[in-house]
Amino acid sequence: MKEDLVLPAPREAATDGAGEPLLVVEGLRKHFPIKGGFPIRRTVGAVQAVDGIDLTVRAGESFGLVGESGCGKSTTGRLITRLLEPTSGTISYRGKDITHAGRKQLAPIRSEIQMIFQDPYSSLNPRQTVGKIISGPMEINGIEPTGGREKRVRELLEIVGLNPEHYNRFPHEFSGGQRQRIGVARALALEPKLIVADEPVSALDVSIQAQVVNLLQKVQQELGIAFLFIAHDLAVVRHFSQRVAVMYLGKVIEVGDRESIYTRPRHPYTHALLSAVPEVNLHDEEAGRRERIRLAGDVPSPISPPSGCRFRTRCWKAQDKCAAQEPPLVRLSGNRDGHLTACHFPEDPTIEGREEDIVLDPALAALEEDIERP
Amino acid sequence: MTTVTKEAGAPSPADAGAFLSVRDLHVSFKTEDGIVRAVDGLSFDLERGKTLGIVGESGSGKSVTNLTILGLHSPKFTTVEGEILLEGKELTTARESELEKLRGNKVAMIFQDPLTALSPYYTVGRQIAEPFMKHMGASKKAAWERAVEMLGKVGIPNPKERAKDYPHQFSGGMRQRAMIAMALVCDPDLLIADEPTTALDVTVQAQILDLLNDLQQEFGSAIIFITHDLGVIADMADDIMVMYAGGAIERGTTNQVLRSPQHPYTWGLLNSMPRLDSDLSAALAPIPGAPPSLLTPPSGCRFHPRCTFQDRVGGNRCVTERPPLAPDRASACHLTAEQKRTIFVEEIKPRLG
Amino acid sequence: SEGGSKGSSNNKDDEKNAERQQSGISFGDAKASTGPAAEVSGAKPGGTITVLQRDSFAHLDPGQIYVSDEMALSQLIHRGLTSYKATSDDGQKHEVVGDLATDSGQTTDGGKTWTYKLKDGIKWADGSAITAADVRHTFERLFAPFVSNGPTFIQQWMADTPGAEYRKLLKDGPYDGKHLPDSVLSTPDDKTIVFKFKNAKPDLPYALAMAGYSLVSEKKDTKEKYDKAPMTAGPYKIQEFKSGKSMKLVKNTNWDPKTDAVRHQYVNEFNFEFNKQYEDSTKAILDDSGTNATAISFSNQVDAGNLSKVLADSALKSRTVSGYQPYVGQMNINLSQPEMKSKEVREAIAYALPITPFVRAYGGTDAMEVAGGLISPTVSGYDASFDPFGKKKKPAGDPAKAKELLEKAGKVGLKLTFGYINTPEGQQYSTAMAAGLEKAGFDVQRQEIPAETYYDQVSKVKNNYDIYHTAWGADWPSASTVIPPLYDGRQIQDGASNYSHINDPKVNADIDRVTALTDPVKAAEEWNKINEYIVKDVVSNIPTAYYKQTQIAGSKIGGLVYDDVIGGVDPRRLFVK
Amino acid sequence: MLRFLFRRILGSLVILLLLTVVAFLLFFGMPRDPALLMCGKTCTPDALANIHHTLGLDKSIPEQYWIFLQGLVMGRDTFPQGPCPAPCFGYSYHTNEAVWSTLMDRLPLTLSLAFGATIVFLFVGLGTGLVAAWKRGTLVDKSFTAGSMVISSMQIYFLGPLALAILVYQTHIFDEPRYTSLTDNPAAWFTGLLIPWAVLSTIFAAQYTRMARSAMIEQLQEEHVRTARAKGMSRRFVFFRYAWRGSLIPIITILGIDLSSLLGGAIITEYTFGLPGLGRLAVESVQFSDLPLLLGVMIFSAAAILLCNIIVDACYAFIDPRVRLS
Amino acid sequence: MTSPIDIEGGGTSVVVDGEKEPKAKPDEAKQLEGRSPGQLMWIRFKRDRTGVISAYVVIFFFVVGLAAPLISKLYGKNPYTVYADERPELFDSAGVPLQPNGGISGEFWFGLEPGNGYDVFTKLLYGIRNSLMISLAVTLATVLTGIILGVAAGYLGGKIDYFVSRLIDFLLALPSQLFFIASMPVVVSLFVSPRDETPVYVRVVALISVMWVLGWMSLARILRGTALALREREFIEAAKVSGAPPGRIIRKEILPNVVTPILVQSTYMLPNFVTAEAGLSFLGVGLVEPTPDWGQMFSKAATELVMQNDLTYMFFPGISMIIFIVAFNLLGDSVRDAFDPKTAR
Ligand SMILES: Nc1ncnc2c1ncn2[C@@H]1O[C@H](COP(=O)(O)OP(=O)(O)OP(=O)(O)O)[C@@H](O)[C@H]1O
Ligand SMILES: Nc1ncnc2c1ncn2[C@@H]1O[C@H](COP(=O)(O)OP(=O)(O)OP(=O)(O)O)[C@@H](O)[C@H]1O
Ligand SMILES: [Mg+2]
Ligand SMILES: [Mg+2]
């Protein structure tokens, strides 16, 4: 890994200060229809994959989106890149509404929003050379950089830390980490302003993962590209993103700057999530295991999500109100600016799990009793 | 092509406490493209009731090692050399029928992907009951009851009914619980868990880890816990073995390996791993390069092409000579013990914050 | 089979057969017409015979019967006014006798008026009496539109028109109360029938013996449905008929042998099985075990593949009977095609055309004999020595001679469209024939014609083919059923049998002349002359082969005789040994 | 399940309906006039028109089609041959028989041929396939694989005549194939169909050997099979319980296709052995431009195919609970 | 976690990360041109002995087919000469060769055909030629249709997919043999044949079109599945995110990736078409005498004439067809294995 990447001079985005909202998402919904019925097939229900979320990504910032599997992270990403047609809500990019824009209308901003994918194997066409893969987007958008596309591709390869001589190779000749770099180079080819990265490192080994995270970080900081960084690994998101949103079952339940979310989470789910991450305590061997909040059961089905607060079925603080009323995403007292939480009974702003919060699986509780008895 | 130096001081087989001991294990596969040396000179011991964590990158031979213990490779394409002693009994040369008696009974296994690892055609209860019938000679009814009981034990609500379900009717976490129930149904002495939580969400992973911990206390089995997540292993293991390219490169208690690691690869792992409490101002320090191909493994120390401390060894030893792994607390590296200590304390530790 | 000497001895036999076949058939008197028929030697009653047939019977209504296998069947179930009576035990000599009629017919004016009287005691299978009204109905219904398959001779004679014009005489048949005028057909009493024609019809007794003119019950006439379930009068009646599968005949108890001079009733039952290809029936009969020992086929021959094997084995050969069929194969040259107007071209075709492919395709010389003329050995007037193009000597054709002629005509490379029947045999012989013609310098274009519609296609006046092969069999052993229908130029129309569209004034005139002759022997001679003129001078039809056939029966079948008139096994005299 | 069946049957009916349309159009595209075939030698335009009228061919094609459909559903009694109750396919032009009864006549042979052969080739083919998979890599496996490869490359029109020539004509060990009704004479039924069965089953069995073997081997590499082994289940148990179950799915898929083509009239087979089943009937119907018969056979064969499809799908559901429960 | 040492991609060429690697070692220069999956497949295929031998056998058949006129010329005969008329001394009057073994001799290597007495050797050569050409044409047409309909249905989805799928369902429900037989005359009659049209050419076209119409479904189904799976692949989404129009995606991203199933399927389809074509000729609705054809030879062989008198005739067409089909199927297996080394054999 080169320590100093050769990058073109940072462009305006990096300098004009984070703050300008680049992407504004309001009330975004995506419901996948379920076909069924008898005797004629019709829509009988919907997977409420994304159910009304609001997000703002500012220019040049990295915005993290975390949550458990199936909570709608990828769907959100794909809605924003307009791979999917939103059911309702609005997406506006630099003030322009692109919610239902067609391919032709999107053409001018296609080059500004790019995507990096999770699977380094399926995200590269096995039948194209690296050169073709990276120059593809330029070709499509008719971009003819000075010095020709090939030169630009070689530059890009260099930027992502690959040998420019690999221009004529095929994807299968690369390791997972290298493929992911090719994916990054492809995304960079159009000099985008926003990159949606859908779990770009979760398929990689730890040692490789760090290489890619570093690369992305450099790209973000030095080229001033904004990121919507989707991941389920809280530690990676913490490392990469300045602001973080936590999703649960198609909804954003908490959003805020990194500091605030990781050290002063207010939503019980965020608490649970943070405490569930297994951690190596490198320093204090005697400290033993940190107490954890254990959530029972699994995420409910997005086809028929619980009423009111969606987390209530697994929440140890749930009361009748939670079932009746959906908590709005608001700033709670004691929270920083921009730290919004959707909870009727928020936690204290700490990450320590308290004794009374620790709930066990009923079965586990029984087991533990068993063990203690003899 | 590669000069392989046999490990000088492999742990002696006479080690009385060892419940399972693996000696100089080599496993290679014949493939279209050549011979893949998936495990190359691996030795370790495991005591009763203890948990051995095996960490390593993808393709480092973790799964192969453990499948070999159970003799689950097709003999036609696989060559196994070395010894695997379970309670002093040699397994590599054991007859299939003897292995059958062991599998699921004394030694049980949990696989990584519970969806593909459970048969879609039979009910969960039946799949759990089968080994119980086979090994314990239980009647169908008794085995079914046992299966329901086990499902209850692993925390599946309403086990009586759910036992009649098929795996695809279970959620990911429940499937993994069912796998665990299946593995534990005959009260095994050794449980091999091959990345049992990798496919799961953190919250579910935490549930499963707790479950395994508690079950181990109840059943008293020894566990081999395979993972690539150091955080998980810190939670689970008594001892840790770090594998790289088919061999072990460091071994010790959890405390030793995590808090005073001695091998550049382990350092690299720790350095490249983002943690919730790590210093945000410092960038992650990845291990450069990519894991080697097992078809043409690097000569000498397998790690040398990616190692940043090679120059400190001096000479060409890293390239020509494969470092041995001493018994007990050990690391397979040509750096001197002193060098290792100082490098860790002075260069690595500060970066870990 | 082996060629050479054995073949020639065979040929001699055949010629001898032919000789007696052409000798005339006399018209029998009342005595000859009185039953019962003479016992077949060694015959005993009882037993069941299995009859293996290729085709199911499409028609059982006499008015619709015109194909040979149905004709064979009708010998057992239907009766007409006249019939052929075998006067020798070998099926070679015949006379026409009265069947339901007391004699073969009386004429007083040289053949214009014919009177028939019905016998006493003749009954339908249901026991009701057969009367003159039934006879009248039988003939009148032939004019109804739904009767479309049977013979049309008598209808045409009655209406005195060629072709299908005759129908105008009684447009819808007798069904809406209209009848033929007495000037044509009268039934003065219950037992008398009088036919009156404009011109002399000396052949009427022959014609009436055709199965197609067997009687139909007026009371039981169900029109179209009669075709599946007719009322019968013969010694057997239909007990069960599954079209395409099987048929069972049982004895008709209302049949009185004393009224029948030609039929027997030895066998208890006939079980027909259909869908038996020649190969199948031959194999089954060769097998000769179980029911196969009493199996026979009325119409199936020994198949081409097995023929030489069967004839080579004396034990097997003893179970076979063989003889000529009435058919003569001929290659028609379509005279309507401009290019075919040149006589040299036609002669070139005649010389070049190889006959061997045709013979080969149907099983070799055991099944086909190279023909010289258009009159079959079974018909009076046959002349074995007639062979104008040397086909008997050079059956593979004479391309050199043909080429010469073609060159003379300046027509080398002439395009010749050859319409052939799309059966395996047709494909085989047409290819080889084409090859032979091409050697002579023709450019032959073969065009397939589906087998099922073959005759419809080639009998169109405006067909596109230059040459095509047809076969024609005499309806009775006189060339009067060959030359006029095939070569009368006034008969050219769609669907008629003048396939080569020959319209030669001399031929037309001769036909008129010879038809009027009342002396059968003289007539036969004259017919042959027309035949020779057509082949040699007009060159519109090239004779290819006389059809022969060999049939085989199980070893327990007795009374096996090849009847020349029936053109196959005589079913009336069979018994189980 | 019931819903699924209902939906499938409904879909099949739609396909059958379309099929009749296609058959109709095909028929009218044929360059032959069935009336001409029936008209005989003295065919006049009048007679032809008359036949056209009695056959109903003088009506417009849609009208004829409508009449045909009506007949299918409600029966027709406008035929001179007699009434024609509900699934009325009419009367054959050529034989004048009711098409339905002709079909029913020919069906027993086709059924005997199809099911007889199927039973044999399933047992033999799957048996050898399983043995080969069980003994994978051994000489037995290799010879089975090679043998089945060669045999499955043979065609009925080669192996059939060969078997006939050798077993019937040259050595006279067997009788010429022929069909006798099972109820008439079971022994004759059996011996008469022996050679067709043997030939069909040989070819099919070889295909099933290959298929069963590769399906089993594929299944044996499934992870859940490995799990079963890791549980200590015996090899036989794993083989016959776990792998076998999964390998049934591809086998049943192909079996459905094969069986449906056998039931729909194995034309070449019937030709080779001279057996008058549905296949022969089909060819005859085309030969004689016999529209009612053609429609009857087409619908019948297609119904056999569709029925097999439905049964196959039902089998999937039976084998695989994922299908059953979704 | 996915293994970076991807066996399929050939672990040999995994490149170590850019930095540590010296810039283009001298011996690496030639390696810089990467190996495409196709090349890898080719390399793998070349290693498979059975596959290579089968390929040679298959090629042999094609060469024989192509060179049939030349071989016949050298051999000095053609399949149209009616030897029964040319050399009547060799036959009896029914056209059965008189010499034993179907008249095999130094002059007639494979003997003579009973009936018109064609030379079996040249007839077989031309028969192979005609059968292969027809099957090849059908395969090509089928592949094209399969690609167009299958890929369109799979990738575009929606109404097109629904329509194509129903069409496939429908065609698969047709009793195909019966349909062949019924539609052959119809198709032939579509080409109104004037006085001197070559019926052979019409027959061939009709044969090809009928087999094509009923032959494309299985491939289309497979390609639809492949396209459907490819549609979910992320590189397609990457192209979409870049604003690629559907045409380009199909051309550049989908088509190159369906080459594999097409190749594999074609190697299975072609022999099937050969046998199907032969079956039709056997039934008499395909090519007919005198056009030499494999299936028509079987049809001849199955006649009583041949079965009773000259079994030898069946030998050469039969054996050659078995060899051809076996070789082609083995080739198909090898091609599949070369593309997808993980499948078990
Ligand atoms: N095309 C689709 N049709 C129907 N349902 C869909 C579709 N795509 C996604 N879903 C459903 O929508 C929900 C959200 O899916 P999504 O892929 O966005 O989750 P995710 O948060 O990215 O999960 P993961 O971490 O597993 O990638 C899931 O329940 C998924 O099953
Ligand atoms: N049956 C086999 N044939 C050929 N190679 C194999 C086989 N099984 C495993 N390998 C190879 O052996 C090496 C070690 O594989 P193994 O499954 O033990 O890795 P792992 O450490 O478990 O990795 P992961 O974390 O991905 O599970 C890999 O390179 C793999 O490709
Ligand atoms: Mg996702
Ligand atoms: Mg593994």
Name of the CATH homologous superfamily of the largest domain in chain A: P-loop containing nucleotide triphosphate hydrolases
Low-confidence stretches of chain C: 1-11
Radius of gyration of chain A: 22 Å
Approximate helicity band of chain C: 25-40%
Which CATH class of the largest domain in chain A applies here? Alpha Beta
Number of strands of chain C: 22
Q: Please, could you describe this protein's structure?
A:
The complex is a heteropentamer of chains A (374), B (353), C (577), D (326) and E (345). Chain A is of the alpha/beta class. Chain A is 30% helix and 21% strand. In chain A, helix 4 packs across helix 5 and helix 6 packs parallel to helix 7 (206-223). Chain A is globular and about 65 Å long. Chain B has 2 domains: 47-69 and 95-243, P-loop containing nucleotide triphosphate hydrolases (Rossmann fold, 3-Layer(aba) Sandwich), CATH 3.40.50; 247-274 and 286-352, no CATH class. In chain B, the strands form 2 sheets. In chain B, strands 6-7-8-3-9-10-11 form a 7-stranded mixed beta sheet, with helices on both faces. Chain D is mainly α and 326 residues long. Chain D folds into 2 domains: 2-98, no CATH class; 100-324, Orthogonal Bundle (MetI-like fold). Chain D has helices at residues 2-29, 34-39, 45-55, 61-74, 99-134, 139-152, 156-170, 186-220, 223-230, 235-263, 267-273, 278-287, 291-319, 321-325. The termini of chain D are close together. The interface between A and B is large, with 54 and 57 residues. The structure holds adenosine-5'-triphosphate (2 copies) and magnesium ion (2 copies). Residues 73-74, 198-199 of chain A line the site of one magnesium ion (MG).
Keyword list:
heteropentamer, C: alpha+beta, six-stranded mixed sheet, 22 strands, disordered N terminus, D: 326 residues, MetI-like fold, 2 domains, globular, binds adenosine-5'-triphosphate
Describe, in short, the structure shown.
Chain C has 577 residues and is an alpha+beta fold. In chain C, 27% of the residues lie in helices and 19% in strands. Chain D is mainly alpha-helical and 326 residues long.
List the SSEs and their pairings.
The complex is a heteropentamer of chains A (374), B (353), C (577), D (326) and E (345).
Chain B: E1 18-31, E2 34-47, E3 51-56, H1 62-69, E4 78-86, E5 89-90, H2 96-102, E6 107-110, H3 114-117, H4 124-136, H5 140-153, H6 159-162, H7 172-184, E7 190-194, H8 202-219, E8 222-227, H9 230-236, E9 239-244, E10 247-253, H10 254-259, H11 264-272, H12 310-313, H13 317-320, E11 330-331, H14 337-352
Parallel strand pairs in B: 3-8, 3-9, 6-7, 7-8
Antiparallel strand pairs in B: 1-2, 1-4, 4-5, 9-10, 10-11
Chain C: H1 4-22, E1 26-27, E2 48-52, H2 68-77, E3 82-86, E4 94-98, E5 106-107, E6 113-117, H3 132-140, H4 153-159, E7 185-186, E8 192-196, H5 204-208, E9 236-242, E10 246-251, E11 269-273, H6 278-287, E12 295-296, H7 304-312, H8 314-317, E13 320-333, H9 343-352, H10 356-361, E14 368-370, H11 399-409, E15 415-422, H12 424-439, E16 443-450, H13 454-458, E17 467-473, H14 483-487, H15 505-515, H16 520-538, E18 541-552, E19 557-558, E20 562-563, E21 568-569, E22 575-576
Parallel strand pairs in C: 1-4, 2-11, 2-12, 15-16, 15-17
Antiparallel strand pairs in C: 3-4, 5-6, 6-8, 7-8, 9-10, 10-11, 13-17, 13-18, 14-18, 19-22, 20-21
Helix pairs in contact in C: 9-11, 15-16
Chain D: H1 2-29, H2 34-39, H3 45-55, H4 61-74, H5 99-134, H6 139-152, H7 156-170, H8 186-220, H9 223-230, H10 235-263, H11 267-273, H12 278-287, H13 291-319, H14 321-325
Protein name (chain D): ABC transporter permease
Domain ABC transmembrane type-1 (chain D): 107-316
Family (chain D): Belongs to the binding-protein-dependent transport system permease family.
